[in-house]
Structure formats: structure tokens, C-alpha cells
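Dig into this one:

. . .
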Amino acid sequence: MPRFYCPAPLATGASLDLPAGPARHVQVLRMQPGQTITLFNGQGGEFEATIERMSRSDVAVVVGTHDPVEREAARAVHLVLGMPANDRMDWLVEKAAELGVASIQPLVTERSVLRLTGERADKKRAHWHAVGVAACEQSGRNRVPEVHAVRSFGDWVASADGGFLLSLRTGSQPMLAALSPSGPIHFLSGPEGGLSPSEEDAAIARGYRPVTLANRVLRSETAPLAALAQLQF
């Protein structure tokens, strides 16, 4: 059954017009009145809904029963990322959403190739949110991960409060050996070339513990996903 994110109040028996994106998707699928879809609004669980009416410009549905099913991971993992360049960030957001990330904080760091500010940063954030939504629709998640506004590393680290830092520095622990048994996890990873030594020092001063994933050097878009997979499963 097709699944769609519908960021609106949902209640059994209610009639509503689907947002433009889901409505267009229903039309592209050539669905007809009487067929059913699944809706979720990020507030928990999902609803069955029946297509009531279709036109060239809109699709109306009647909301059916609520299923309280949750498919979230046992531990909330929050990724803090020095943004990789080009389309690698899109790919990273998509896969992180599929793997169950709770939130993503994009950072501009000393070695960042991708540098976003102002309106361009706002547009990218909206785009990444849409990428996360599509990944949740596909993967069965009912809660969309939050993509925070782009921040500079210096601005972010001033209020950072502990977590794990992916690092190649001598003395870094294997990540799984450093984990506490429960609770949310904040994981910091750098862009291409990694964080600078001064940035690592600043993160460590704010309670971030340097950890490693393996005896190989992973790409900037691979390392956070490898960490997320280990942390979740």
C-alpha cells in the first residue's frame, strides 16, 4: 500500500485534501476512488485512508483506522556532520533516514567544500527535509528525522554537550567499546579530509570522546552511516 507523509492533524473519520506532493504521486500511480493508502504525520503511528475524490488538481481522502505501530530504533542517534560536497549530502541524508537517525545537524567546518549561508542554506535544508520524508515513506518509518539549520562549527561547538567524535588520532577507542548501555547518542563526523586538529580539540573539550570504526579510512559520507548502522543494530 502506498505510504505518504501528511503533515496535518489526522483523525479517524475526517475528510481532507492531500498536500500537493502526495496528491500528485497518487495521480501518477493512477489510483482511483475507493483504493486505500497509508498516511503518517510524524506524530506516531499511521492511518489507513480511502481515496474519496480525485480531480486534475487535488485528491480528497477519508481517514480510516489508526495503527499505533512504531518502527523507530531502540536508541535515538543524532548525527552532527561536516557536510560532504555535491550530491553526497543528499545520499547521506536519505540513507541515514532509512537507518533510523533521529536528527541531523549540518555543519560548515574549516575543511568543508560545501559552504552554505542565508537563503541558499535554507533552501538546502528544505530539500534535505524532503529527502528524509521520501526515505521514511519508502522505509516504513512514521517519524521524520529533523534536519537542523546549517551552522558553523564554532557556533555549534560552543553549546555542544558530549558525544562521540569519529577520529584517526592516536588513542581513539573502538566505538562499540566506548558506548554506554542506554540513552541517546550524539555522533560527530567531519567532511572530506576530516575535522581539523583544532576542531577536534574543541569538540573533546566539550565532552566528545574520540572513537574509531575500523582499521580503514572511510569516506565522509560512508563513516556516519557505518556508525549509525552499528549504533542502531
